[in-house]
TrEMBL record:
Record InterPro entries: Glyco_trans_1 (IPR001296)
Molecular function per GO: glycosyltransferase activity
Name under which the protein is recorded: Glycosyl transferase family 1 domain-containing protein
Domain Glycosyl transferase family intervals: 200-320
A matching Pfam family: Glycos_transf_1
């Protein structure tokens, strides 16, 4: 088995990178500006080469980062976080991002170049511990060992984690505080951004027993098995599951539930702006993320804009809010209890929570808000 190739495949799935694509050459001076300063962004390049597929928030995140540096008078170079390119790190005024190419910048002779680590999940130790727990928990349920369904960070980017001048993490709450306790450097919280395709939806008129699970890959670490075990028990509830795809072994184990059940409805590889996605979101009252580890997951914050009340684990990185229902325990019983707590709201209480969720998401996860917050971080770190 080619371990390097296997690791690359896992990383590609985490960031929704198409199979078969390789790291492309750096994009030099993205906006053709003539400033005195240069920044190297080690992230993803596809958003600058392709049109928006409306399947992942990182399309807009990439533009937010690049535009923010440009507005602070940096010529912007973008390099894929993967690959092994010959980079003249010493020529840059700032370096931002993550991955192998960000890590290699620490081997440059110039320590004085400001380096800002961009964290789209959690601290790697927490990330890996919770990912391992997820596959262990599923093994206890099923007897199936599916390690590739864990969201493990295989590469040890030690300098990136512990040596940058500052870090920016897409998380608040428990995930933010956990990272803060593990590192000495300055840590900034930044909200994830929405695509905003549901922002024009009409406010909810009442609640029903329909729950949305919207996620990408690594579905065991995203807690899909916890949701499906609840679905087995709760025939009084309907679960709409929207994912990119499902591991074959996982799909076979839950075959009857996923394909023949009266209360589970599976959709795969939908664009966020598709009519089918719109109908699913309009039909649901709650969105569920029983994730073992995350960073303000796009599959949760996006439907919040449509007024879906979130039911999440503390490992999703949300702050404490009255209208965010947090699991007391990451388990089948914990999810069941939290669902019952959400369903205990009368119709008026639900409408108030739904409207509060919508307003909160539009204000805090909008592109303009996230960009302004990042600009303030850059001003604090680079001026």
């Amino acid at each position: 088995m080619n371990l390097k190739r296997s690791i690359a495949k896992r990383v590609n799935r985490i960031f929704a990178i198409e199979k078969g694509k390789v790291a492309e050459r750096p994009i030099i001076n993205l906006y053709n500006t003539n400033y005195d300063k240069r920044v190297l962004i080690s992230y993803i390049q596809a958003p600058f080469r392709e049109t928006n597929s409306f399947k992942h928030q990182n399309y807009l995140t990439s533009h937010i980062v690049a535009e923010s540096f440009s507005e602070r008078c940096y010529n912007v170079d973008v390099i894929d976080y993967r690959g092994d390119f010959d980079i003249e790190y010493e020529s840059y005024s700032a370096i931002f991002g993550f991955g192998a190419n960000f890590e290699r910048s620490f081997y440059s002779k110039r320590k004085d170049i400001p380096r800002i680590h961009f964290i789209t999940g959690a601290h790697p130790d927490l990330q890996n511990a919770m990912s391992l727990q997820s596959v262990n928990d599923f093994y206890d349920i099923s007897g199936l060992w599916l390690p590739t369904e864990a969201n493990i960070i295989a590469d040890n980017c030690y300098y990136s984690t512990f040596g940058p001048d500052a870090s920016v993490i897409l998380a608040q709450g428990f995930v933010f505080e956990d990272h803060k306790k593990r590192v000495k450097g300055r840590l900034h919280s930044l909200n994830n951004n929405i695509l905003g395709v549901f922002k024009e939806f009409r406010p909810k008129e009442g609640s029903n027993n329909n729950f949305l699970y919207l996620s990408g890959s690594r579905l065991i670490t995203k807690g899909l098995h916890i949701l499906l075990e609840v679905a087995k028990q709760r025939k009084d509830l309907n679960f709409y599951i929207v994912v990119f795809d499902i591991d074959q072994d996982l799909s076979r184990y839950y075959h009857d539930l996923l394909w023949n059940s009266s209360n589970v409805f599976l959709y795969q590889n939908l664009r966020m702006d598709s009519e089918e996605m719109r109908l699913v979101v309009e039909n649901c009252s709650y969105c569920i993320a029983p994730s073992y580890i995350d960073g303000l997951p796009g599959g949760t914050i996006e439907p919040m804009v449509a007024g879906l009340v979130p039911i999440v684990s503390k490992y999703c990185g949300f702050p404490s809010e009255e209208f965010i229902f947090e699991l007391g325990d990451l388990s089948v019983s914990g999810l069941n209890e939290t669902i019952d707590r959400a369903l205990s709201m009368d119709n008026q209480s639900y409408l108030e929570a739904s409207n509060a969720v919508k307003d909160y998401a539009l204000e805090n996860y909008s592109v303009s808000n996230v960009k302004q917050a990042l600009l303030e971080i850059l001003d604090a770190e680079l001026l």
